[in-house]
Structures
1.
Amino acid sequence: MLQPALSGRSAVLPASHAIERGMMFKRLRKEAADAQRSTEPDLVLAPQRDNLQSWRAWVAGPTDTPFEGGVFELELNIGVRYPLAPPVVRVTTPLFHPNIHDRTGEVCLDILKEAWSPAWTLVSVVRAVRALLAAPNADSPLNCDAGNLLRAGDVDGFARIARRMVSEHAS
């Protein structure tokens, strides 16, 4: 029989952790049911099989942007403090955008940090990432090359590289 190696500590979680986990799973079950019923044409969101703490989303690139025509995959990892704390969101489809890290896919978005509220849902987070594709913020870049092009006013250069990345990775 395996025994927990906790040096005399109890293996039982404190009551506050159990309550947070229960709240998280209740909320995620509701969000999974809502996502399954969704008919939103530009967004698909679903939990990974047998793991409500790991989700995938696919979003269509917004029209009239360099991302139009692309489909972008997002990975959402939910910690035990959700919905009190935001999920960790990464874009797994390579793309050229100032607010998305070109190697890790990390997303720079205020609602994933200091502006988080439990009122946000996973679908609203994915919608916000899609909106970010249409409205990049060059003043807060994770991809400095993309941010520098936009700050220098080279919108055409930015769009050309972004469209190339879409055709290579997201079409």
2.
Amino acid sequence: MSTDGTSTVASRHESRTRPHVVVAGVGSEYRRDDGAGPAVAARAVEQSPATHDIGPLVDPLDLLGRWDRADLAIVIDAVRSGAAPGTVRVLELTGTTVSSSPGVTSTHGISLSGVLRLAQAIDQAPGRVIVVGIEGDDFGRGLGLSPAVDAAIPVAVQRVVDLIKEVQVCA
């Protein structure tokens, strides 16, 4: 029994029924729009206290060991896809998207799909991975987001918060 009179077994069971959600902003604030991911992640987690911010991360490879076996991992990153700067896209990585993700790329050395394949190979992959991509404009050195990306931050934050609420309601 715990100090409040409830069974510790019941308490452990309750904590297991809540989905384990992690949020990771990938990018560097010192590369202008590349800092969009960490900015969105920090704000989204402030609004969703049952989640864990596992960033900021500089490279997708840093996800290994941090997102292991989460029920849902939401990764936010600046992307280059040819869309208008500030465009927010949401993509769930599945078996199909992991093997071929044309069009949207990361500005980092290893792709997110490559990291997910590696996590799957070592049996540490999250149950679901959703990417929230924000089309960047300026990836040069320096602080601060471009106007289009800065304007898209609240939109991306709301998408992340909605994704978190969705998985918590379904649990």
3.
Amino acid sequence: MTYEEHVNQEMTEVPAFFTIVNGLKNRRWRKILIFADDDPDGGTAATILIRTLKELGIEYSVDLPAPFELEGFRVKEWMATNRYDAIFCIDKGTCGYYDDFVAADRDFVIIDHHLFQGNPEKCIVYNPRKPCCTAYLCHRILTALGFRKEFDDFIALIGLRADWSIRPHTF
């Protein structure tokens, strides 16, 4: 099975993956706030996601706060001055309290590879619960949308190698 075939299979087997890919393709979210971890995996995952959003013409803002888990005050600060259709939380854990950041007019999308810390039920959660990195997961989204280039493979590989070198305990 080729990589592209595997990605296409995931479209039918992983509801969150399907929701994210189709949400981006159909411009469900016109303005997205990205919170990404400040480590190499979070940075490379954000790079791949930003390239995806640029390809689609979707407006975005990015914040790479230092603490691993996303803090509520950061979300409130951004929301006080801006309106976003979605918040994408990239490589910052899969935490149950992230449900608090979902609003009637705003989705909260988690793209992550870490063990769950609680069970976010209101969020769109793309976390395969197996060893990988978030840059790889964003690479799969980019591939499903048909935007993959050789450079993206390299960026995803950097995220994978750096994440496992720096924090090998992350799964």
